[in-house]
Amino acid sequence: LAVAQQLNGSESIVAYAPVIFERAGMAGRSESEDLFAATVLVGTVKASFVLVAALKADSWGRRPLLLISTSSMTVALTVLALSSLPTFACGWLSVLSVCCFMATFSI
Hints:
By secondary structure, the chain is mainly α. It has helices at 2-7, 10-15, 17-23, 32-60, 62-83, 91-106. The chain is built from 6 helices and no strands. The chain is globular.
């Protein structure tokens, strides 16, 4: 569990979220407010799902949450990779996939 938490790259995604969103075509360099707002949204999603996980981890069971979290993070990162391709650049999809990744990581 500890190895998986360190190797998934969640902190890298948080640190580079504005760059990820910009390269995915969300906004130009002059529209930094949109990039900042999307990054704040990612942080808010992460914090709220940490609270949900803290309240529900014992009742839902830790193993099912781990399996759901790991598989969902894989899907979210795959969608993020696809949304970042130059032929498929889609800013809103990259924001959604990063938010889903953070939500499932926090569970």
